[in-house]
Structure formats: C-alpha cells, structure tokens
C-alpha cells in the first residue's frame, strides 16, 4: 500500500513538473522567445478585462478576454538577434504576473512594471532613453492608477499627481488662515502698560 501511495505521489509530481516546465523556444524575424506552456489551458475561465498570452501554430499572440492554443505559464524571455535581452517576466495561466522588465536594443532599461493576474498592480518605473535616469514612477491598483505618481522633469523639478481608482485627485485649495482682529482698546491698554513699566 505504501509503495502504491509513493508511486502515485511520484507520478503526480512528475506530471505537475512536466505541466509547469513545458519549456519551449520560438523565433521570428526579430526575436527569440523562451517560455513554458500551461497544459490544462482549456480549463481556464477568461476574464474579459485582461489580456491572455498564448502560443499556437508556432505563433505567440494575445487577446483580451480569450485565447487560442496553449496559455503561456512560467518564466518568459525575449531576446533580439544580437542576443540582447528585450523582455523578461512571468506568466500565470496566460496573464502577466509579478515583475516585468523591458530593455531597448542597446540594453538600456526602459521600464520595470509590477503585474497581478494580468493587471498593472504596484509600482511601475520608466527610464529616460538618453540618460537611463528615472523619468516617472506610477502606482497602480488592479489596472488603474492609484496613489502618488511622480514625474521627474528635465529641469530637475518633480511633478506630483495623486490618483484614486484611476481618477486624478486635484489638490485641495488651502483656505486662508483667519487672524483674529485685535481691538484698538486692547492694543492701547497693552501699550500703556508697557510704557508704565519702562
């Protein structure tokens, strides 16, 4: 009985590993792609708001709310013909998930974005192509800008914008501080008292 249990456990683990580590390579005219597929793709119920990334007939594609073929699942890399890393991230049942990095053809970092089940979620940082310095930082919650966003202008200034669920929150107008009026009599009494002391 123990041997049967051990055998079934081992077979299940091997099947899961094969399902999760179904590594593939694909190349087109511009890039080489390294990725894995989710074998039980037909069991996935799609959300109409998110983009699903898939592989079918030697083609990688994406569709909002649906897919054909097998869903991308696990680590993903795209490399150009000069062997420069262009995209790196992770898919979870066809949806971008976790940290995604993008570079240009010279290897300069363009952006770092955080995803949660296909939607931007967390911090996204964008870099200037000429200097590599941070150009802007955006924050998202479930696909919408949310929180404090910063833009670093060329003149060294920062532009701050706050969003709540995708809507820009305008800064509240500061109300002028009311200074209480001092009655003339009180001022005269204080002045006389001061004069007497001297």
Account of the protein in words:
With 198 residues, this protein is an alpha+beta fold. The chain is built from two helices and 16 strands. It has a 16-stranded antiparallel sheet that branches.
Helix content: 10-25%
Q: In sequence order, what are the helices and strands, one letter per element?
A: HEEEEEEEEEEEEEEEEH
The main β sheet shows up as: 16 strands, antiparallel
Task: Flag low-confidence runs.
Answer: 4-8
Sum up the overall morphology in one term.
Answer: elongated
Rounded mean pLDDT score: 85
Number of helices: 2
- Could you tell me the strand content as a percent range? over 45%
Q: Note the gap between the termini.
A: 107 Å
Radius of gyration, whole Å:
29 Å
Class from secondary-structure proportions:
alpha+beta
What is the total tally of β strands? Answer: 16
Short description:
The chain has helices at residues 2-20, 184-197; strands at 23-27, 31-38, 51-56, 59-64, 70-72, 74-80, 85-92, 95-96, 98-103, 109-116, 119-127, 134-141, 144-145, 147-152, 158-164, 167-169. The chain is α+β, with helices and mostly antiparallel strands. Mean pLDDT is 85; it is low at 4-8.
